[in-house]
Design goal:
The chain is α/β, with parallel strands linked by helices. The protein has 3 domains: 200 residues, Rossmann fold (3-Layer(aba) Sandwich), CATH 3.40.50; 87 residues, 3-Layer(aba) Sandwich (Rossmann fold); 135 residues, NAD(P)-binding Rossmann-like Domain (Rossmann fold, 3-Layer(aba) Sandwich), CATH 3.40.50.720. The chain is 43% helix and 14% strand. It is built from 18 helices and 14 strands. The radius of gyration is 24 Å and the shape is elongated.
Length: 441
């Protein structure tokens, strides 16, 4: 089979590369000529473990190619994936202009039967709009070419996207007829041979599945953060509570770690979009409204602890930040809690010295020279009045605490991810604050 993937952002690049890895002929298309030129040289626009090597390997084997011309790229293709961005509008709704523009181009240039697949995260009803857009372009050409629409939402975790794609928990595909189902079944056959389930359903249900999945995970995170805040008030230890409820198979241990709020490109955007979709249809998603409110509040929890510790006087203080990206194993800074915390600290007249293993270049796009970017985690600690652990990168889990004490002005740690042991911190002489525990060392 031959497929085209339109859009070389996170979803599109991972999708195209992983399909090429199992032997499918893939062309990835993007309007950004500079990005395409870099991809041809093996220079990626995103950081994802293992992806660069896979892109280079499959490009060398000529299974994966890149281009800017959609009209040429879709010739002889069987399936075209639309994987362009759907940025949130000011009202929280998903902006579909890029998706529909691609649909129009497909209808303008297609020369044979195609299955047109929405891979971007799109609201329920988008596939219908895509179908209308493709058909309108075909009508303008007086063309009788046939096509089918499918919805194939992605469930990729940043930092583990390749494994998620090649060894998925499930493959969800919405189709309108048997012909489209047969094409999609053939496309995913390499993945089915290892027993990974494929679930066919109607198109609106597939579109809804993506939003429901992300919203459920966001709900678990906000619920646990709400519980953590109450634990601090009541004198309970949220770490113990998490273990207690996580052992229940109906709840499970995943996505119940307390912290400083979720971020990234998916959860915030998708929760807002589902709330907006419901609103437009006369229904209130009350639980999701609370999820979003809790998450925004949670991003300030660590700052409030800092403010209290220093008796409200932060002017002239220097803070070391370990981690900038919204989660480990990615350079994604979108909706990152670090941005909220840094903004609040800068407004108080503080100096920020930050280190992140991969996200500092990306962070510079958001923060510019308002903070100092350090060479390593210990460099950030020099003359710091406190350390803020923002992202739980593995290399931060077992640092040299004795070296840390020598570098810092005062031995204070604000741990936004609960990666250290309270008793150990006390024995080492640190004043230690974490999430969901009332008594700090």
């Amino acid at each position: 089979m031959k497929i085209a993937v339109v859009g070389t952002g996170y979803v599109g690049l991972v999708t195209g590369t992983c399909f090429s890895e199992v032997g499918i002929d893939v062309v990835c298309v993007d309007v950004d000529a500079n990005k395409i030129d870099n991809l041809k040289k093996g220079i990626l626009p995103i950081y994802e473990p293992g992806l660069e090597e896979m892109v280079i390997r499959n490009s060398e084997k000529e299974r994966l190619s890149f281009g800017t011309n959609l009209s040429e790229s879709i010739q002889d293709c069987d399936v075209v994936f639309i994987a362009v961005g759907t940025p949130p509008g000011e009202d929280g709704s998903a902006d579909l202009k890029y998706v529909l523009a691609v649909a129009n181009e497909i209808g303008t240039y297609m020369q044979n039967y195609l299955v047109v697949v929405t891979k971007s995260t799109v609201p329920v009803g988008t596939a219908k709009l895509v179908k209308e857009s493709v058909q309108a372009a075909l009508n303008a050409r007086n063309s009788k070419l046939e096509f089918d629409i499918a919805s194939n939402p992605e469930f990729l975790k940043e930092g583990a996207a390749i494994d998620d794609f090649l060894r998925p928990d499930r493959i969800v595909i919405g189709v309108e007829n048997k012909k489209a189902e047969e094409f999609m079944n053939r496309l995913y056959k390499p993945f089915l041979m290892n027993g990974h389930p494929i679930i066919f359903m109607d198109v609106p249900s597939a579109e809804m599945t993506k939003y429901a999945a992300n919203s459920m995970l966001a709900t678990k995170i906000s619920f646990m953060n709400d519980v953590a805040n109450l634990c601090e008030i009541l004198g309970a230890d949220v770490n113990m509570v998490r273990k207690g409820i996580g052992s229940d198979a109906r709840i499970g241990p995943k996505f119940i770690y307390p912290g400083i709020g979720y971020g990234g490109s998916c959860f915030p955007k998708d929760v807002k979009a589902l709330i907006k979709t419901a609103d437009e249809n006369g229904y209130k998603m009350k639980i999701l409204q609370a999820v979003e409110e809790v998450n925004e509040t949670q991003k300030s929890v660590l700052f409030n602890k800092i403010l209290k510790h220093f008796n409200g006087d932060l002017k002239g203080k220097t803070f070391a930040l370990w981690g900038l990206s919204f989660k480990p194993k990615t350079d994604d800074m979108r909706e990152a809690p670090s941005l909220v915390i840094i903004e609040k600290l800068l407004a108080e007249g503080c100096k920020i010295k930050a280190y992140d293993p991969v996200a500092m270049k990306e962070a510079n796009h958001f923060l510019g020279d308002t903070i100092e970017y350090c060479n390593d985690q210990y460099d950030a600690l020099k003359n710091a009045d406190a350390l803020l652990v923002i992202t739980e990168w593995p290399e931060f889990r077992s640092p040299n605490f004795n070296e840390m004490k020598k570098l810092m002005n005062s031995k204070v740690i604000f741990d936004g991810r609960n990666i250290y042991d309270i008793l150990e911190m006390k024995n080492l002489g640190f004043t230690y604050y974490c999430i969901g525990v009332k008594t700090q060392a």
